[in-house]
Records
---
Amino acid sequence: MTFKNDFLWGGATAANQLEGAYNIEGKGLSVADAMPGGKERLNILASPGFDWTIDEKKYVYPNHFGIDHYHHFKEDIALFAEMGFKAYRFSIAWSRIFPQGDELTPNEAGLNFYDQLIDECLKYKIEPVITISHYEMPLHLAKVYGGWKNRDLIEFYVRYAQVLLERYQDKVKYWMTFNEINSATFFAGLSQGLVPSNGGDDKTNIFQAWHNQFVASAKTVNYGHQLNKDLQIGCMSIYSTTYSFDANPVNQIATQQSIQEFNYFCNDVQVRGAYPAFTERLHKKHGVKAELLKITDEDLSIIKSGTVDYIGFSYYMSTVESKTGEGVEASGNMVLGGVKNPFLKESEWGWAVDPDGLRYALNDLYGRYQVPLFIVENGLGAIDTVDNEGLINDDYRIDYLRRHIKAMNNAVEDGVELLGYTPWGCIDLVSASTGEMSKRYGFIYVDLDDEGNGTGARMKKKSFDWYKEVIASNGEKL
Ligand code: BG6
């Protein structure tokens, strides 16, 4: 194996999906707190009547309780340390720091929680890797300001980011500005606070929101670099390796366009510092009223100066594109869509398992951008069961991760510069797309069901000891 000695092995989570404690010690409501649990989650968010009202008589809100990490973080981090984590990627809940989002001073109680969390990581020499905004923004900003389409959010976000960077600059080196920024293609409610009732069904708003996020991100990068030149601030997007269904040039062109739109658009702006040449084509495709977009020359120069230091990305699956639609079967994947790949198996949620696609992703991103890469999410969401002896034999997860780590090693041998690997949901948590607890990713099982019933006890799965060995051998023992 060829991983560097300081390779950052670890795991990843997001505040809104595990902390719970959604309304204590001054925390405000976030968009995630207004999202019902269950497989219908994305459809509910996309329905015309959805206006962020929380109706506890009608729905369960699993993000309210998460896995109560807020009160169990010491126990959880001790387990991560036992696995030998070198890094832990987590996010800060914006609404814990600025409960409404538009205040001028932060909530000290919220910061105190992260002081303790960061110190707990450092106690075990675990490098904290922080996502400043992971599918979470104060609900007030979505309801009253209309989400990221409103330019005021740039100022609010930058104020929030500055508080974090100033406070933690000597303890935290690696940062990411927005989680999966390209996910607004299908997740604008979560990532931009945009749903149909506040303009999410008009793509002009989505592109305006992206632009505002790009400016906010670039300002944050510039601020961080001026504050402390050692800080490494990255972008973060989903990479979906996309194959053409067949050699028909019509399908090949459709595939190329879909790659440009999904895998390159946001990265191009954040890594290269400029909108790509195909932007106008995207606007036309989506009926964006480009003349209404507020993009100033000053914005463009901020974007140009505030390019990121590395690319963080998530990789779960590949997709297949077919424009002609001949001989295809729809994929079971409700998030990225596309058609079924006859050469690959899908997870229970229809996500095509494709380790070679990760090697492809790493080579593609490194070839295009030539900045260090960090795989900050990867993993298999599956139903786990506890057997009569209290064991959780998640061999399927070990198999998935083993194959992806091998592919990652191949890419490093291909010449890719890779900083680390933090598989998703290292401890079971609430799923983002379906709000389920039963879609589990962890090395650590948490005894809670979709309704939040259970003891909340933490149990090691078989993959726990397996991953411990992987880390101890720096990827040799798979
Ligand atoms: C990524 C997100 O999309 O994938 C995480 O950054 C999310 O927040 C993860 O949880 C897995 O998706 P899901 O829908 O299975 O939770």
---
Amino acid sequence: ESADRGQFRHFMLKEIHEQPQAIADTLEGRIAHGHILPAAFGVGADEIFASVERVQIIACGTSYHAGMVARYWFEDILRLPCAVEVASEFHYRNPVVSPNTLIVALSQSGETADTLAAIRMLKREDPKRPVLAICNAPESSLVRESDLVLMTRAGPEISVASTKAFSTQLVSLALLLLAIGRASGRMEEAEEQRIVAGLEKVPGRIQDALDHGDRVRELAELLVEKEHALFLGRGPMYPIAMEGALKLKEISYIHAEAYPAGELKHGPLALIDETMPVITIAPQNELLDKLKSNIAEVTARGAELFVFADERAGLHSADFTHVLPVTSHVGRISAPIIFNIPLQLLAYHVAVLKGTDVDQPRNLAKSVTVE
Ligand code: G6P
């Protein structure tokens, strides 16, 4: 088994480092010359995409967070209504699904019981309703039962905490954005070219973010004794904050929760004092100034602050504020993919320092095949 881990101490760290390659593989043969290639989603996809009026994403766990990021993209960039829901809620609440809704089931394993139950329910209701699977397991039940399939090519993911599967899901959802945009005429050619060019740069930018690993380990030392942590983000960084909090709780057993930064005053601010570290992500975008005022509110109350920032964000370290510049000039699509990397590393290093079973956290399974 140690041979499979190569030079790495854990599968999780190996899989974190495999992300540049996994993303390059997921993009391979699907984009070229500034365009999404017509065959990327298989036969019949364009016809479905041309008439889609709504997207419903269904998933669990980390896959659900990837879906939440995509909702920001689909509505903002394509003006296409998009809903995202955890499968276990969706399939028990008798949901209303309007015609011309594309169902997107996101799953690393393709065997998650609730995700399968949700698509089976939808198919029973209307066998003609199209279901697209974005999945990492080619032989899985989800792939067999879906009309359209896009494989994430992350390769086998052994660590229970999902890392490379999540990143390749985000890239796959960006490909879906391009494919729907093109088939439905909702995306200008220049925008398509910009997004494709940005995606091509993602593997290299992840590599750069991975190079900050030692600095992230130093930050992890400041978190290891804490009992709680609050993650804050805005826009597409809100689901990334949720994913960062999930990773930390899954493998380090530190209680972590994520909040949209704009909700601070509606509750979590009451928890802030020197025992509550706050972790946030600060890309250079139109919400940066708002995030900065949220940051000022938590530091004024004594919280130790950890910020993963754009190099141009104009944020600097101080006594209890630790700013780690991660990247710069990343667009709306690349930013969540890249800013997630230091959060993965943070959770990993905290877990290693705590001495937990990183790849096999207590009580958790890689694939939840029974409810
Ligand atoms: C479990 C795993 C998570 C995963 C979730 C959904 O909770 O521990 O890593 O995100 O299931 O799994 P799926 O295979 O459907 O993506």
---
Amino acid sequence: MRYAESVVDLVGGTPLVKLSKVTAGLSCTVLAKVEYLNPGGSVKDRIALKMVEAAEAEGALKPGGTIVEPTSGNTGVGLALVAQQRGYKCVFVCPDKVGADKRNVLKAYGAEVVVCPTAVPPEDPQSYYQVSDRLVREIEGAWKPNQYANVNGPASHYESTGPEVWADTEGRVTHFVAGVGTGGTITGTGRYLKEQGPVTVIGADPEGSVYSGGTGRPYLVEGVGEDFWPSAYDPSIPDEIVAVSDADSFQMTRRLAREEGLLVGGSCGMAVVAALRVAERLGPDDVVVVLLPDSGRGYLGKIFNDEWMASYGFLPATEGGTVGQVLA
Ligand code: PMP
């Protein structure tokens, strides 16, 4: 019989699939690494597992302990899944702007969710940063992974994502493209690939974020871009950073679902736009690998909703022709 001992053993080992429609006219090969096939539905399962295992080894997380992290997104799901299987409790702290669906996913795995007001500065005792720090102090056996500064985030990608890309392309990968949030994916995967051969590493960043020279100006694509420089990010790894607009990111996200059968999130569309811009200048021997972090299921009410897209002016003229009439 062939089966995994636990769902945690299913983390990683995601496949590559060739993009064939959105790449029309390009001569190089563009392969997407499909991270929504992780058991928690995103690339973040990888860092969750590695951060928990390292904390266990260091004695920071002991049997019966509690994981406390300010997160509402994919990292929370990964941590909740690993914690549950290893017998830890989870308390996630998130701002009230986070939708009920996202909170309910965490609760479904058995995690506790503490909601804090969004409209307070980070130094306010009610802010979600302050509340998570207080909970770490007050809960006995509490441990905070802190994905923005935890070296085991990039390490998980150095040990799993990088070797998978290298092995699955049989060392033929020439370019690796990934969105930058905490910077863990690009830092760990990029470092590993550069040690194997002459691989060019490209970061994709929302316009307005610091990685592409912005000030942290708001953008709508989720999970990527920052208004500060996290220590999980090593700026010496990417050879280039490509800034992508929300409109371009979301339009490509919809094309990936309609044309490639990949229902993925907005940061995936963003990374593919960056990958295609790079691919335009490449030749038939080049192999571009672009990492797609999560699924589109979490964005049905936004990116895949014509009214939402139209309300921001994101719908291209060729798509959703009736929406203008509906809104008029
Ligand atoms: N896309 C999504 C949807 C994410 O949740 C994240 C993680 N914040 C990223 C991209 C970026 O990954 P990383 O934090 O490793 O830079």
---
Amino acid sequence: LLDDIKGLHHGVLNVAVVSTAEYFSPYLLARFCSHHPGITVNLDVTNRDAVLKQLADNAPDMAIMGVPPDGANLVAQSFMPNPLVVVAAPDHALATMKDVPIERVVRERFIIREPGSGTRDAFERFLMKSGWRLQNSMEMSSNEAIKHAVMAGLGLGVVSLHTLEMELKLGRLAIVDLVDFPLERHWYLVHRQGKRFSVAAQSLKTFILTEAAQAVLPALPGRKTRAKAKR
Ligand code: PGA
């Protein structure tokens, strides 16, 4: 019991997160660490494929990512929505259009994430399912680069809503009102099956699973997200 109590006050945790989770996980950690000032949490920010590799090597205590693959010996629990949206510069013709059909946007140049990114993977699955192909796309391996490229007028971008809080507030980017969007996704807390948790790790896990949604959900713009959530 004494060890347990000590474990709650001290310890070093390693958490691997996909790059898109960098927009909310520091806020979560700030809250957690204010309750547990003796616990140090190291955050490794990388992409989905790299997080999966780390989990396979049993390196981190836990990870945060979009949907992990089936049958990879992993336990995954969803804890918060992760809507995927298409963004445009505010002066782009599509920025103010309503109910834009997918066939209208595939003619545009898209700036998409690199292979290995969960964001990219989700968008590609959507395209495959809907039978459309992008006619013109450029790859950038960071959400920030994509957002700046879109602001600069290079094309449309595909990003998680979590990346957009600042730009939406400042009116620097607009969400395209695309039919069937936002794509509904979720964030998952992931660890290896049978992982032995320290007391500190267990309490971080419980914290994320129970408090994440209230703590950090960004202002979800608008009716579409809410309407979809009711389904
Ligand atoms: P990414 O992951 O940052 O690798 O695109 C996001 C996700 O998996 O949802």
